[in-house]
Amino acid sequence: MIYLDYQATTPVAPEVAAAMRPWTEEKFANPHSPSMWGREAAAAIEVARDHVAASLPDGGKFAFTSGATEALNWALKGIFERSERRKLVTVATEHAAVLDSAEWLEGRGVEVVRIGVGPDGLVDPLAAEMAVDDRTALVAVMLVNNEIGVIQPVAELARLAHAKGALMLCDAVQGFGRMALPEGPDLIAISGHKIHGPKGIGGLWMRDGAEPAPLLHGGGQEQGLRSGTLSTALCVGLGEATRLSQERRDADAEHIAKLHELALTTLGEGWAINGSATQRYPGNLNLRRDGLDGARLISDLRNIAFSLGSACASGSGRPSHVLRALGLSDREARSSIRLGFGRYTGEEELALACRRISGAARAQNRLP
User: Fold this and answer.
1) Mean pLDDT of 102-113
2) What does the longest C-alpha to C-alpha distance in the chain come to?
3) Is residue 315 very low, low, confident or very high in pLDDT (cuts 50, 70, 90)?
4) Residues annotated as part of the active site
5) What are phi and psi of 321, to 5 degrees?
6) Exposure pattern of 257-292 as b/e (b: 16+ CB <10 Å)?
7) Which of 75, 183, 187, 283 has its CB surrounded by the most CB atoms within 10 Å?
8) Residue 69: enclosing H or E segment and its boundaries?
9) Multiple choice CATH, 2-9+248-366, 3.30.70.20, 3.30.2290.10, 3.90.1150.10, 3.30.1330.30
10) Secondary structure of 188-239 in the HEC alphabet?
11) pLDDT above 70 covers what percent of the chain?
């Protein structure tokens, strides 16, 4: 199996697995217990929190969650619970965790403006400036799009939000640990399994004074803001994955840039990049080819793991809302595939996979 689905999830780093193992075996105590074993677990969680916080802005706090979906739901719903303003501005290409939460808020009287994007997948700052006004409580924009990899002008959009007294939420899941985070957001959602950490863990960074109302109620274990017993192993895994991502960020970036060029060269002619070719994360290649049946291509190449788009929407049968927002037809969207690669992708295996993908795609064109 050649794995090219890094946007869906990344392989767990060996160092992360090793760091987690003691906390799933002999060190299993509840970190909220006052016992010696509980205090040891709690201390390990705080070390992990420090590792994560070192990659986030100063002047705020970080709370662990079950993942980015919970973090985004918490930020969106919790801000509107505390704000008298009743308007949300977001982008048509956001992750379902944002768009579905926005729809839920609409049903409770919140006005939602979904800004469109250009053919390059990028937000027009002028359109955003027109949408954000003094009724806006929150502007929610992702840093790196999970389907097409384009990088949005988050810092500029945060300035627009702040000029109108609104807060800025950034879904940084696909950028955290891979690039420097932009200045400006008041809330930042991250996920462990996108940076070679475990699934089931993520978090929300909140600037001081921008904390949303709790989404989960109970014991208030996480700083009085989020209830539920924390998993020491998962928290330690996210902390170690974050530490490694900072230690290896330059080397990872250099490796991924080489893979990006190798993939495009090996695939050859006939492919078009969906979204901006320059303002993007190079480890995400969303490509289309005239006449291609992307679903059939995946079926024909079962020993290569790649996707049609978001893993969260796979199996729905609907064309990607992100590709449609770029102005692509349903046919063009279904002629698109997403290749994702990263730290543990080898050059030889990527080249082999791209040759096989290109060959299978050309074979489709020869079919009657």
Assistant:
1) 98
2) 71
3) low
4) 312
5) -65, -25
6) eebbebbbebbeeebebbbbeeebbbbbbbbbbeeb
7) 75
8) helix 68-82
9) 3.90.1150.10
10) EEEEHHHCCCCCCCEEEEEECCCCCCCCCCCCCCECCCECCCCCHHHHHHHH
11) 97
Distance CA 347, CA 360 (A): 20
- Residue range 145-170, pLDDT digits in tens: 999 999 999 999 999 999 999 999 99
CA distances from residue 282 to 170, 275, 304 in whole angstroms, order as listed? 20, 12, 19
Residue 325 near residue 93 (C-beta atoms within 8 A): yes
d(CA 233, CA 25): 9
Asked whether the beta carbons of 330 and 319 are under 8 A apart, the reply is: yes
Backbone angles phi, psi at 89, to 5 degrees: -115, 125
pTM confidence score: 0.96
* Residue linked to tokens 């807060």: 167
Distance CA(207)–CA(57), nearest Å, equals 8
183, exposed or middle or buried, with CB in 10 Å at 0-12, 13-18, 19+? exposed
Tokens, residue 36: 């010696």
Examine domains 2-9+248-366 and 14-246 and report if their fold is the same.
no
Parse the chain into domains and list their residue ranges: 2-9+248-366, 14-246
Determine the Cα–Cα distance for residues 267 and 2; give it in Å rounded to an integer.
16
Q: Which long-range contacts (CB under 8 A, 24 or more apart) does 113-116 make?
A: 113/87, 113/88, 113/89, 114/90, 115/89, 115/90, 115/91, 116/92, 116/325
Q: What is the CATH number of domain 14-246?
A: 3.40.640.10
The DSSP element (H or E) to which 65 belongs, if any, is strand 60-65
55: left (phi over 0), alpha (psi -120 to 50) or beta: alpha
